[in-house]
Design a protein that fits this description.
three-stranded antiparallel β-sheet; 21% helix; 98 residues; single chain; 3 strands; alpha+beta
Amino acid sequence: MPGTDILSSYPYVIVRIECRRCTRKGAYRLARLAAKYGAEIPMLELLAHLAGDCAIWRTRHPGAPRCGAYFIDLEFPAQPPDRPTEGARRLRLVKGSG
């Protein structure tokens, strides 16, 4: 869907980022980011502005680790802990010995 990868289509008021490689994280107000960078900025370009000062953001060697910054709220949510897994759906209650 065109336009879903720009800041103006972000679904929340707070834009949160985090790094998978270190403890770095941050939260920014959507309106302030739009005022500073423009509402039509692509999300990957915005991520480069927010996390671009990371020491390994622009790694030049192909095998070297890269920055793990990402938008927390744009990741697919994990399965809720109370929802049965696929294997648990096939389990059946066995009456008997006891």
